[in-house]
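Researcher: Go.
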Amino acid sequence: MPVSPDNDPYYRLRHSAAHVMAQAVLEIFPGGKIAIGPPVEDGFYYDFELPRALTPEDLADIETHMRRIIAGRHPFVYRSVSAAEARALFGDQPYKLELIEGLARGQDEYGEDAAAGGMVISTFRHDTFEDLCRGPHVADTGAIPADGFKLMSVAGAYWRGDSARPMLQRIYGTAWNSQAELEVYLHRLEEAKRRDHRKLGRELGLFHFSEEVGPGLPLFTPKGEMLRYTMENYVRETQTRYGYQHVWTGHMVKESLYHKSGHYENYADVMFPPMEDEGVLYRLKPMNCPSHMTLFNEMGIHSYRDLPQRFAEFATLYRYEPTGTLSGLTRVRSLTQDDCHVFCTPEQIQEEFSRCLQLIREVLAAYRLTDYRVQLSLPAAEGKYVRDDEKWSRAIAALKEALDSNGVVYDAVEGEAAFYGPKADFMARDALGREWQLSTIQIDFIQPARLGVEYIGEDGQPHTPVLIHRAVTGSTERFMGVIIEHFAGAFPVWLAPVQAVIVPISDEKHGEYGRAVAARMKDAGLRIELDTSKERMQMKIRRAQLQKVPYMLIIGDKERAADSVAVRLRSGEDLGAVPVAEFMARIQAEIAARQ
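Model: Structure:
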């Protein structure tokens, strides 16, 4: 969600810090050119054209200048100016002059049309620095805690995000109400680095990316595939219990189907280029809904008594994401969705929404993602949406009624709807408090009519069903990245690719007993490894701990004689000797309870 004074209590502080930083940079580089500098989540940035590349030492120097400016307690003063006055004020600043021309035409700082007949041009001034700005700000520079901010990094950024425009230097900073808050944030950043799923994915041997295969196309190891399988199998079993039927609709679709559904005109920019066969164009499938609706049609005539029908599919989809946006597993080009489409009558929307909601709550709880909010994603006045005001109104009213009847508190956000209907998006917070959009429930009155989806109603006449789009964990790949970071790779037992490692003190003396114990546990469905390497026992235990295996089972003479194992946890806690049968019952109970 974009930050604004309405949803971010730090907005004024960070906006003001950005202005102070810009003044400091211009003091150090008097001929520098300034672009824009907004607050963003957890901080702020400002873009500059400077005579040389900045270094880490420059950031420290800028911070020193900022503290001097802060100490001056200079008021932030607003004024409204004419376009001519603004041009005179910023005569040596080309990026500001471009912004001024846009403001005079009614465009915002990003070049988007915002107001007919032009916009009010305003500035804020503090000390010797004045900037185009709508505000708001703190009262004066002294309200910025001198020990509560830090400049974090420098990155390249094209002017207005256009690769044909000049490359600027973007300085990122963060600002908080106190040094204590800043230190908490910096600690959280360090913890985020430690939990980075790309780093842990390599260390735990879960997945790889290869230039030989291509960007955004992950390769999963046996351990990674076991994690995928466990995740998907859990959702499959759970949604089967909730009355969903699983289908399969392949990887390719005729392009013409996407013209009918509306995806081509609204979604073509994220589709891979077409392939031609005998004059027919095909696309790698970027979504499932048109295929599921086609399957519904091909299955014959449906009566109202047949509804609802719930189609679920774990399908790998392909989206042409720009290379620069790819990020580990959380942004890929091949993604596997736990996708579902419910065909129902308008009268069944409330019950089916409740079923979706209950399923989502159960699954998120199993992953310990119980801190979440719901966002009602609505269309904006402009954008890529199928134009049908009557159906949009019905869909929005139905979704609001479903949320209200289930007692769901939500925030309405414009501009985040799907092109065919509104969404209820579940925004979950992980162990570090970061927010991820995971589950979604969408109401669609538009696509079924475009694809001729019908059922025979109680009146004997054909009717168009409502389509409810639903995903619980969304993309398997993205969700895996989230939970790797959420658990810091230390998965609960039910989810761990390897649930226990058996460590013989001596393979020569205890290896045969170890193999027998491993066989018993594998026969019981447990995921067990036996470490028969020649290394010392402590090295084997350390290796298992680094792999974040939940249990290490040490066996020696005493354990062999008593048919037991000495149990250690990955935390280092020693539980002592436990009979094998007792340990198996314990771990099976943990798995069943998803602890």
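Model: The two ends are 32 Å apart (CA to CA).
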